[in-house]
Amino acid sequence: MRLVLLGPPGAGKGTQAGVLCKNYSLMHLSTGDLLREAVKNNTPEGVQANSYMDKGELVPDEIVAGMITEKLKKEDVNAGFILDGFPRTKNQAEILEAALNELRLPLDMVVYFDTSEETILKRLTGRRICRACGKIFHITNIPPKKEGVCDACGGELYQRNDDKEETIKNRIEVYNKQTSNLIDYYQQKKILNKASGDLGVDELFAVLKNTFERSGLI
Ligand code: AMP
After folding, report:
1. For 61-107, how does the pLDDT look when each residue is reduced to its tens digit (9 = 90+)?
2. Is the CB of 88 under 6 A from ligand 1?
3. pLDDT at residue 76 in the model
4. Per-residue pLDDT tens for 24-45?
5. What letters, b where the CB count within 10 A reaches 16 and e where it falls short, cover 100-119?
6. CA nearest neighbour of 7 among 123, 121, 113
7. Mutation pick for ligand 1 pocket among 59, 61, 128 (CB with most ligand atoms within 8 Å)
8. Whose Cα sits closest to atom 19 in ligand 1?
């Protein structure tokens, strides 16, 4: 199964991608994670990307598309993958289509997580991430067993720089201006499916499982 998860920041794409990858043995490809890793390792791409990310702006297409196409070519993605946070512009969508055509691995489905602003704000302000393994928690929705400590690996939980209130507003604006038109783009390609991003993790998984069954993907 080859999927793109589309939706505003805080729609739950990363969390749901984790659940789907575990259940269906898919590879999780998150440009946000790749970029944060590059920033942490101080790579040339990371240094360039950092200032955009801190402001909640999109990192230039060349950097992000380069990272993701390299991953798609290098990793074993034949069993399927989930793209989370990519594409975010029409140009990225076109680059992706060309790369996947070359690999003969076209997308099966794009799932758009339709999410209310209230949910987005609550999710982003309460989100905490494990510094060591990247697992996502939420102070009230998905709390760790021990405050500030990752259940999975014992790593320290932190709040992303761009999950501060001032930056969140800009990220939502950037999504509305530069990414939301991909809903129409994929609708025209007849591979778009809509699900409610307001649902809890398990409820949303049940809805998606049903959608995949109906579409013959599982
Ligand atoms: P995310 O973890 O998906 O919320 O991404 C965090 C930040 O990384 C975004 O606010 C952007 O600055 C950058 N980023 C992630 N994916 C992309 C992308 N496909 N295009 C441009 N910038 C991206």
Report:
1. 999 999 999 999 998 898 999 999 999 999 999 999 999 999 999 99
2. yes
3. 85
4. 999 999 999 999 999 999 999 9
5. beeeeeebebbbbbebeeeb
6. 113
7. 59
8. 86
* Residue appearing with tokens 């939301």: 180
The pLDDT assigned to 58 comes to 98
- Determine which one of 2, 88, 123, 135 is catalytic: 88
Active site residue 128: no
Is 13 designated active site? Answer: yes
Sorting pLDDT into bands at 50, 70 and 90, what band is 50?
Answer: very high
| Distance in angstroms (rounded) separating the CA atoms of residues 19 and 17 | 5
DSSP per residue over 91-143, as a string?
HHHHHHHHHHHHTT----EEEEEE--HHHHHHHHHHEEEETTT--EEETTTB-
Q: Is the CB of 192 within 6 Å of ligand 1?
A: no
CATH of domain 2-115+178-215: 3.40.50.300
How many C-beta neighbours within 10 Å does residue 183 have?
16
